[in-house]
Amino acid sequence: MPPSVGRSVRPSRGPVRLRPRSGARSALVASLTFLLSGALLVVLPAAPAAAADDVATEDATVASGTGPDAVELDTTLFVPGSAGADEPAPAVVLAHGFGGSKDSVADDARDLAGRGFVVLTYSARGFGASTGQIGLDDPRYEVADLSTLLDTLAERDDVLLDGPGDPRVGVAGASYGGALSLLGAAYDDRVDAIAPQITWNSLSAALFPDAEGTVEGAATVAATPQGDGGVYKRLWAGLFFGVGAVPTAGGLLDVLGGSGGGGDVDVADLPAIDPSSLDPAVVEQALTCGRFRADICAAYSDAAATGTLTPEIAEILDRSSPAGVLDRITVPTLLIQGTQDSLFGLGQADANARGIAANGAPVRVVWYDGGHDNGATARVSSALRDDVAGWFSWHLRDEGDPDRGGDPGTGFRFPAPTGIATTGLTVQGEGAVRTVVADAYPGLAGAEPARRLPVAVSGPTQPVVTPAGGTPAALTTVPGLGAVTAALGGATVEIPGQFAAFESPPLTAAVEVVGAPTVDLAVSSPTGTAVLFAKLYDVAPDGGRTLPAGLVSPLQLTGVSTDPAAPTEVSVALPGIVHRFEAGHTMRVVVSSTDQAFALPAEAAVYSVALADGDGAVVAVPEVDGTPIGDSAATRWWVLLGVLVGLALLGWLAAVLWGRRQRRRVSEVEPDGEDVPLRFEGVTKAYKDGFVAVRDLSFEVRRGQVLGLLGPNGAGKTTSLRMLMGLIRPTEGRISVFGHAAGPGKPVLSRLGSFVEGTGLMPHLSGRDNLRLYWAATGRPAADAHMEEAIEVAGLGAAIDRPVRRYSQGMRQRVAIAQAMLGLPDLLVLDEPTNGLDPPQIHAMREVLRSYAATGRTVIVSSHLLSEIEQTCSHVVVMAKGRKIAQGTVEEIVGTGGSVLVGLASGASDADEARAVAVLEALPGVTAERTDDGLVADLGTGTTRAAALQALVAADVPVDQFTPRRRLEDAFLALVGESS
């Protein structure tokens, strides 16, 4: 659902071309369709003619998914003439907006290809000529499709690879495509950089917003609550569903048995259809749901009928929301959000920025004057195009690449606040564009917290009527045209008796609001619940009022006081805006009971609304200091000249300081170091004879985990641990311990205890003396050793005081483990710790490691004993031939493929069991047999567990149990076999 950006697009409106209709209604429909078409927000500037002419295109159909969820994706690849096997180029996947197709982003792809990127465009499942049903960016479907496309890119010799099967790739998209880029980075670690635009953090919060409450710990300018359910955004949701429900490119004809085909067709070309040949259920599904999946269609129907966010609806929306997986996104992220957007406001980008920056990933935030409600001007679009191109150039190209460009940094840019409500009616390309740049987004990744100016407001307690049936309702936001209505002065309508108003004195100086202001209210309701809408108006001295961007903050209040004399206090986040309140103007907080864009209560009621702090009430207004930048033609030459002079000075300075820089390196400390005790990033170890022991190894271990490093002999496990210990240096890449670079003699290694390759004990000394000698060598106080605790772990009893030369191999092993635990290190690294231990000792060791990690410390265990890894570790990294071939929790590694135990419901007959066997063995690669444990199906690699279960359910087999029987050993052997 991305906005227009000053160029025409061909919206996907279904297989039938309708005649244009005249009048206001057709103009509104055309505007909304234009805003919801597939145009990518960031349309790159035209490439030089020679470069554009040198771009070749390749159309292909790519198969994705399995079983009933298999689809054919319609793709087009744009390949620059400069890319080839001798000089592969980084790739970019462009995802289109909701209602669009690959054609929506074709111009953008050609321009990016003209800059030297291999660009892949495609129509998402359910759109354009691609088959399948719309899953709303479901990780199981649309995100899995993205991974399939990355596999396709990895097979090309003109695409730069980071490793086998791993292309150097960025993902960009707007709205629907923007959420896909975020989810793709969370679920597929091959994505190297993303540029999501005007998209969501929580689809539940976007479609059921509730601005009541505060965001815990947030110090950013636009932090708004992303709650569990609020007021249903009825008009936007209806428009959203309507665009998807109208099939595109022959979709409806295919369902009904017609000819289908791509593109629009004339009514006269449609084939005659015999109604008697159609399945009524299929017809109803097609007409009511279009290309949506059945569960999404049902969820929309429930929401439209009840206006309530049920657990079933929330499960669907949350599955398609980046909010739940932000902690997985660690790649450089450029977040672009519009200030004129009543669908996905600034708070959505704010939440994404906070979540991703918390992982230590570089995050740059750009707000622009536009959004789903308002197309950007040509000048604004040009600046955004350069942002995306520059972001990918820096983060996808190698150092030394002449096309890399400059470091875009992690700053913040936003439109210069004005008191004028801008609209898309501005002549494209006219006038200067002024923006403000700041060094950092306030409150993000160590930046200074947002500064808030208190503006006093006052007003008495006021009754607010909510009418029966929610009619008449206030008019503020028209989906797709919210900014336009706000700019028309007086177009917003507040119904007398349905709102309370609180006003500031005339401002003595201008106030520039950048973000979401907050205010505290006191509310009572006779029913204990209330639906309200809070707004912040700009009122001029002559009484004229402006609602910035036409935005409102819905409130879904429950558990409020029923006594007007003792109201409930609530904190409210007003809409996130960029607006200048001029001197002499006033701020007016309006709290109304209705808004025609939202679902409203059917029962009439009278609420009591007041300011929580009475005479001391304030609106807390976020402000941001920055440097205004003009973008008129007159100033651009001076900017260019300044840049050239600056580059010359920087070149001279770099030459002078180069040697000094080499001698005095400042250690970079990762901000999430305490939460990520160990991180490998692209680590390779190659020896002079050409042998590569470890190749491009990347993984991270979080606090409290017990991670098993698993692999056959020669996999590179011990080499990896020796590099971690500083015993050998990696050839490439970085190893960080608690955020600090690891290496020989690094102070941070004092927080690490280890046992790698041999005990290293002195044979003529006792076990106790060996421990004392080791600790003395650290130079730390004896009291910090926790010696007795370590000896207890060893479990040697009186033998601890006998010479080590009299120890068995298992006894030496236990002393070495106790030595590693001296000082109770925060990170414990053990290489084959159970070698030489008998079963009771192995069991005891397992309990020790689990309890050790439970204290908040972290344990790394390298072992070839798969059963011990399975029973001891919470997470696993599987290696083979020096590479990581899998990573995840033990459950994730074990719980894919393999065998499943199928239990039938009590009372099932032998015939049911025989039918289950027949259904299963009809699936690709599946064998089934009856065992003493029950019916066991070996799924092999041809059928997923989900597909097998769906087949049984579809055949009416009474399934009562369906559980995996795969062991870690099975998973390990399968993974190692695949890596061969």
What is the chains' assembly state? single chain
How many separate domains?
5
Instruction: Output the radius of gyration.
Output: 31 Å
Query: Helix segment count?
Result: 25
Q: What do we call the CATH topology of the largest domain?
A: Rossmann fold
Q: Quick one: biggest sheet?
A: 11 strands, mixed
DSSP strand tally: 40
| Helix percent band | 25-40%
Q: Could you say what the CATH architecture of the largest domain is?
A: 3-Layer(aba) Sandwich
Query: How far apart are the termini?
Result: 44 Å
Q: What is the residue-mean pLDDT, rounded to a whole number? A: 81
Structural class: alpha+beta
As residue ranges, the low-confidence spans are: 1-51, 247-278, 422-432, 482-490, 631-641, 658-667
Shape: globular
Q: What amount of the residues lies in strands?
A: 15-25%
CATH class of the largest domain: Alpha Beta
Strands in their spatial order, largest beta sheet:
1-2-4-3-7-8-9-10-11-12-26
By CATH, the superfamily of the largest domain comes out as Alpha/Beta hydrolase fold, catalytic domain
